[in-house]
Amino acid sequence: MEPPTTPHPAPGLQTIHPVGRVSSDGPPVGAAVAVLVGGALTIAGSFLGWLRVTTRLGLFQGLSGARVATGIHTTDGKVALAGGIVAALGGAAVLTARTRTAGTVAGTLSLLAAAAGAAAAAVFMATARSQTLDDAVSKFPTALQAGARDALQRLIDVGALRFSLGLGVVLALTGGAVAAIGAVVALVARREAAPAPLPTDSVPHPPPIPEPPPGPGDR
């Protein structure tokens, strides 16, 4: 009587492994913190000075001095403030999200808001001088606006009228950039954490049915 054969598992079941990286749906903490910090910087920068206008008119001391415009008193500053608030809230949502869909939505909103805040600060930095001149000239009667612009330009040329960017707009731009980068990292991390499907040729097949051992009549 031959000893019963021990069935072996199908070779396919020993070599089948999932393709891709599988991880939990936990939030990317570092990226979420970066979004939160960037949003907070943008909010803080919106309440600080964005532009300093200094006049130096020599003997006319009453006309000399400096004026500082804070971010919330400008259109671009208000946009940056709103973007910072939404980005910070989105960062908190990314940090507390427990599903991939919720984290993706929060990360996308954070990215858009942070980009809008940074763009508003960048636009202000590029156009603050010309916009301030336009606002000053617009207060003159139409017939005098051309002469007023020329006079202001001469003051700028001789250094009697100076424009300098404040710390607030720099913080808003930096915060928006940090929050946007954090949001991108969070989105990429969640996408890479998604499990990849098995290829069709790697689907396990059931093992073959082992033959029964021979009975006494099969000797």
List keywords for this structure.
rod-shaped, 219 residues, Butyryl-CoA Dehydrogenase, subunit A, domain 3, 6 helices, mainly alpha, 3 strands
Main pleated sheet: 3 strands, antiparallel
Number of helices: 6
* Proportion of residues in β-strands: 5-15%
CATH architecture of the domain at 25-127 and 163-191: Up-down Bundle
Q: What is the rounded Rg? A: 33 Å
String of helices and strands: HHEEHHHEH
Q: Could you give the order of strands across the largest sheet? A: 2-1-3
Given helix and strand content, the structural type is mainly alpha
Topology (SSEs and partners):
Elements lengths: L10 H5 L13 H18 L2 E7 L9 E6 L4 H22 L3 H39 L6 H13 L3 E5 L1 H26 L27
Report on the structure:
The radius of gyration is 33 Å and the shape is rod-shaped. Residues 12-25 and 59-63 have low confidence and may be disordered. The chain has helices at 11-15, 29-46, 75-96, 100-138, 145-157, 167-192; strands at 49-55, 65-70, 161-165. It has a domain at 25-127 and 163-191: Butyryl-CoA Dehydrogenase, subunit A, domain 3. Strands 2-1-3 form a 3-stranded antiparallel beta sheet. It is mainly alpha-helical. Helices cover 56% and strands 8% of the residues.
Short description:
With 219 residues, the protein is mainly α. The protein has six helices and three strands; from the N terminus they run H-H-E-E-H-H-H-E-H.
